[in-house]
Amino acid sequence: MNGTSDQVLEWISHPAKERPGATVAYVLIILLSGVLATLAMGNNPWWGMIGIAVLFLSGWTYFLPIRFRMDSEGVRKKSLFGTEIKKWSQVKSIVPDKYGVLLSPFPSPTRLAKFRGLSVQFSGNREEALEFIRAHTAG
Description:
Elements: E1 9-13, H1 15-18, H2 20-40, H3 45-58, H4 60-63, E2 66-70, E3 74-79, E4 82-87, E5 93-96, E6 100-104, H5 113-116, E7 118-121, H6 126-136
Antiparallel strand pairs: 1-2, 2-3, 3-4, 5-6, 6-7
């Protein structure tokens, strides 16, 4: 990447669709948890439904598609629940893993990074996305 201001990288990440085997396992665990909650609470199905809803919502970034857009200004993450924006000037370090990268506002690792940073999920574009990020940050 040459860092020109007109470069844009866009993609949609949908882990549930990209990893069907893991999705089946994840859904089975959620459903089993709902059944166990129902049984543990005296066969009251409401507890099972609440448990299933909570577990689904806690994993929404896995189940629902998320649109990412990177340009010379920063990163935009758009989902059903809203839009998050992180300017490159706010990124002090990057923490890549197998499925994505955390853009952290802290220069060194800290537990707060997950809450204050921006998590970017790859979708078959790991190297391209990391190259783009490194070209626009000191990371």
